[in-house]
Amino acid sequence: MFYNLLRGFLYPFLFIFLLFNPKKLKFVLSRLFQDISILDKTKEYIWIHCSSVGEINLTDSLINNFKKNCKYNILITVFTDTGYETAKNKYSNEKNIFILKFPLDDMFILKKIFSQIKVSKVLLIETEIWPNLINLGNKYSKVFIVNGRISNKSFPRYKKISWILKPLFSKIDKFFMQSEDDKNRIITLGACKNKVFVTGNLKFDISFETFSSEDMSNLKNIMNIDSRKIFVAGSTRQGEDSILIDIYKNLKNTLLVIVPRHLERVNEIETLLNSSNLKYKKLTDLEKNSTSERFQVLIVDKMGILRKFYSIADVVFVGGTLVNIGGHSLLEPLFYGKSPIFGPYLQNVKDISKDILNLNIGYKVANKEEFLNTINLLETNPVSEDKIKAFFKSNQNATEKTIKFMEE
To answer: Where's it found, cell-wise (predicted)?
Structure first.
């Protein structure tokens, strides 16, 4: 009640602020005023709520499992624009999958959706704690936290508001957590012990794309590789590109490929490269007009293509780890047989990074010298692909466990 009164009080001030920020105004309006009449009313729904691209990708195996049960439609709501576009691209041809932008936990819109369609289950992926969605989900259906995690960074913050979380958690039917640490933390925050289960990480069940040798050869030809090695820096965040450029200057016969996590940073990366006197090209320009001109750095200014670059890479760095973000997917390069190099900030991937380091199939670096030494090590002593495949095989079946506990 207080939550919605506060929202009602703040709405006028929010819209005044948004009038001076057209980009954010568009973001809010597109979520509060969207067409929900597209939802088919003939079947029950499983509602899956995701934050962004990562959560959309890791729910692949869950969605594929639910698709087999023809009695359900699937509603996917997504918070970010990039996540929404990813979902639309993935499922545009699926007649039983409907995609909406998440309506910012607005009680009236959510209530309208619940009253318009029959929802059987609401799945909140990872730690999407939205009070109105949980309260209404509890009233109209069952609510589950799926692939739940509580990072080192967020745990102290959540503890300060555990008095708010505990009554919300009482309305969640079951919590499916990634690890024992995550299980213990959610219980400390107020979840009932009997409702919490460790099911593993859905990321191991992701169906990664495979690329033909022709696809990879075409990509290399566009980049004018010649005999050079390919150093792919994936999902880079602000503050990392300058470090990577400095490291690259010490490498010979190598092309640096920078794939920023957010495309709005492309101009910022261009400025860094210009100040470093490095010749660069943007991928979208190369796709329009291939060139024989030799350049040193490729900026990937296009979404959804990082995995293809991982597949052709000789050296891979995973971003969000040299600055205090917490890390992005370490599994993606591993799937393509490439040992990831990453920095010390790993709170989002803490369990996976520990396993990777214990098995010596990836490398953590703290500075430029360690980074360069690791690149030399990988060149002389690459990790066995069989070792990487065994790592994946031993961690699969999180989807199967999740669905089993959910049905029970």
So the answer is: Cell membrane
Q: Is 287 helix (H, G, I), strand (E, B) or coil?
A: helix
Q: Look at residue 297 and give its three-state secondary structure.
A: strand
**Does one domain contain both 220 and 162?**
no
Q: Based on the domain organization, do 201 and 287 belong to the same domain? A: no
pLDDT bracket for residue 51 (50, 70, 90): very high
Q: Is the pLDDT at 222 greater than 90, yes or no?
A: no
- Is it the case that residue 385 has pLDDT exceeding 90? no
Same-domain status, 280 and 382: yes
% of the chain exceeding 90 in pLDDT:
74
Q: What is the pLDDT of residue 1?
A: 66
d(Cα 272, Cα 223) in Å, to the nearest integer? Answer: 20
DSSP states along 216-264: HHHHHHHHT-TT-EEEEEEEE-TTTHHHHHHHHTT-SSEEEEEEESSGG
Count of domains forming the chain:
2
Rounded to an integer, what distance in angstroms lies between the CA atom of residue 328 and that of residue 312?
Answer: 19
Q: What are residue 197's phi and psi, to 5 degrees?
A: -135, 145
Mean pLDDT of all residues belonging to the chain: 93
287: containing domain: 213-393
CATH of the domain at 264: 3.40.50.2000
Domain-located, residue 320:
yes
Which pairs count as long-range contacts for 329-332, CB under 8 Å and 24+ apart, including other chains?
A: 329/54, 329/203, 329/235, 330/356, 330/362, 331/203, 331/204, 331/206, 331/392, 332/208, 332/234, 332/306, 332/307
Indicate the SS3 state at residue 5: helix
